[in-house]
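Input.
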Amino acid sequence: MANEFAIIEQYFSTIGKPMEDTVLGIGDDAAVVDIPQDQQLVVSMDTLISGTHFPPDTSPADIAYKALAVNLSDLAAMGASPAWFLLSLTLEESDDRWLTQFANGLKQAADLFGLQLIGGDTCKGKLAISIQIAGYVPRDRFVTRGGAAVGDIILVTGELGNAALGLAQRKGEVELPETLRERCTLALNRPQPRLELVPFLRECASSAIDISDGLVGDLRHILDASACGARIARGALPVNAWIEQHDCYDYALEGGDDYQICCTVTASRLAEIERWNREHPDCRLTAIGEITGSGYSLSDGDQLVDLAQRQGYRHFD
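Output.
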């Protein structure tokens, strides 16, 4: 059975293309990096725990890919470009087959998104993966949750609810058509961080957040930080045909794990939104409502549903 140092050397010492700003990577007590001139460092961390963030029988490659992707989603929401990451891996045992698949999935994601693993830790315990990720943004060009203003348009990327629907399928709660099942399973296991949206967010967004715990709960964070309200329209939500046909919009509203981006822009930015959608059909922005002075509601036909007491996923509740 390999010890922690052998595991690091064998599986994780060469993940990701070396970055020019990395002075010292894996192998010492800590890593050393340079911060490019006129850039600011944006840092985030997420932990994925078996049975909470992914089913225990999820493939190791998918676990690794998702662990990195969800952290990249945080960077994207801030308008930052990824640079490097640290990994803390807790394992019940040293399993060569599991570690090989996990390392391959992590390397695939690191290569795809262009960042380097520069250090971390391994220890024994219940399976959990923590990643600290860092990226750069031009000075004072970062995007926060706190800039939304009355009259701003609320936008979301992609489709909502697919990951939650994929989890429901996996649990046997729904039976999806085969083609949709594959799409939703992919959304659950391999979310796509919307890094391509970063230039648009820096230029146009007044606020942004990634949708990890469900649209209703995550949009609330923007409203709280910006001291405002919102009205969204159920009929405007970008969902797949199955959700629409079966009237199962809660998957999109509260399901979580979408890792799409919710952002706000002023109405004067309509031309930029239209241009973005023409040039990026796979990351289409959909207007779902607007920022108001107070309140939080969902229009559903002639009905107005109060969202004030609706919450997304929260640990310890």
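Residues 60-78 form the longest helix (19 residues).
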